[in-house]
What does this fold into?
Amino acid sequence: MPRPPVPEAVDDAALLWEARRLSATQARHVSELARSMRGDSRDGCLINLPGS
It folds into this structure.
């Protein structure tokens, strides 16, 4: 019997599921905000969003 997922994985999955409703502009803003919160100024990890 598989073990249940860790709570962090459940939270991450829920966040990703809700993020599907964001427009490309909103998703870009969230990405930029997350980068600034972790102090990452590099542009090495970009997401190819539809409509961008």
About this structure: The chain is about 50% helix and 0% strand. The longest helix spans residues 24-37. The chain has a mean pLDDT of 83. The CA atoms of residues 34 and 40 lie 9 Å apart.
